[in-house]
Amino acid sequence: MDWWWRQQLADEGLDVLIHEQNRVVSRAQLLAAGRSGVGIRRRLRSRRWQTVHPGVYVTHTGPVGYHERLVAALLYAGPQAAWSHYTAAEQLGLIKPDDRRPVYLTIPWRRRVRARPNLVITRDAHWENRLAAVIPPRSRPAEAVLEIVGLSSSLDAAAAVVAEACQSGRVAPEEILAALTGRPQLRHRAALRSSLTDVAQGAHSLLELRYLRYVERAHGLPAGQRQRAVDGEYTDVAYLPYELVVELDGRFHFAPRQRWRDLDRDNRAALRSEATLRYGWLDVTSRPCAAAVQVLQIMRRKDPSVTARPCSPSCPVR
To answer: Which domain of life is it from (predicted)?
Structure first.
């Protein structure tokens, strides 16, 4: 594949190309447009342009921003380079942007690019099969998720990325599962299949995945309905036969508006004759058995025959 910018340069000219690239340009682009090496050096010596990477410049004198760094990295890595990992996921809208991260790039296995500060460059023998049909080039959504999973230090970190990406609505668990078949050596591969199944059933965050596994399933509680739409919002877990709603939130809300929203949601549940139990991160990760006891107690108000099982000899669930 030729460089992604050549057609635009031929169709629209250098000035439009530089504008579209956040005022970033490479030496290769300048020469392809007929500019001379002498003219390039003159602008650099006069400091009208700045060098970001060898052979890559910004055509202004101000600070170099995050989006400029993204384009500059791609141009520096040269032909057949693509954004990947966190960078691709950010640009695809799968995860929240974080300008403190380095720029992640992938190049074909046969190529080598000299390392630079704040660039993470990966070589991939299957690179051409993992690209999205978009310009500038980047990994496909499912591939970007799995690239991040491969860097994740723990299964929790991997599951959190999968849940966030799927919650964005831009990639489906089934797409990630399909891409997983092409990565037989991927870290956390076996456990990831289970996480993707849970995400497909409606778990939208790492906290929801943990509640499903360590509160509901570990204690044999009846299965809840994930992400039920009601009153214009979504409830995290609804146990409809027992008129019980469980809300899960890993954040600490100090803003009055968010606190009011939570209270309003609980009040509307009460108007529907539904009890609400609300759990945070510490409740689910440090006290899952206590949460299971409370859920079970509410359920038994509606149906005393509901059964559960202890997850360990010391578990208080009976």
So the answer is: Bacteria
Bridge partners of residue 106, in order along the sequence: 82, 122
User: 3-state secondary structure string, 43-59?
Assistant: HHHCCCCEEEECCEEEC
Query: What are the strands, taking DSSP E only, across 13-162?
Result: 24-26, 50-53, 56-58, 82-83, 103-108, 119-124
Q: Which pLDDT does position 230 carry in this prediction?
A: 84
Query: Are the beta carbons of 180 and 257 closer than 8 angstroms?
Result: no
CA distances from 182 to 134, 177, 188 (A): 21, 10, 14
Question: At 9, which amino acid appears?
Answer: L
pLDDT at position 211 is 95
Computed from CA positions of residues 225, 231, 236, 237, in that sequence, does the dihedral angle turn out positive or negative? negative
- The confidence score (pLDDT) of residue 59 equals 97
Nearest CA-CA partner of 169 in 230, 226, 95 = 95
Q: How far apart are CA 101 and CA 91, in angstroms?
A: 13
Quick check: 38 and 45 in contact, CB under 8 A? no
For residue 256, the model assigns a pLDDT of 47
Per-residue confidence (pLDDT) for residue 261, from 0 to 100: 63
Q: Extract the residue ranges of the chain whose pLDDT is less than 50.
A: 252-256
